[in-house]
Amino acid sequence: MASTRSRKSAVGRRVASISGVCLLWIVLLASAPVWIIAAGLYDSVRLKFRFPHVRLLAFGVLWATLEGGGCGCVGCFFGQEWLWSW
To answer: Hey, where are the domains in the chain?
Structure first.
């Protein structure tokens, strides 16, 4: 009984975290033109010509893309195993 409950909570956590990563990726990518310009202007006004805020936000998009791709690959590989076990 305890293993079923912990499995359900683990599945729930995975669904929530994967959904969160996908939502983060969509929001960052959709709003990229706005935040690139805003962060670039902010860094320019502050005389930070290495643009740390633009790079930080671009890294966030890269991270979310890689995490989403990794979740997709794992879902494909392990989903096939789960599908064929039925």
So the answer is: 21-84
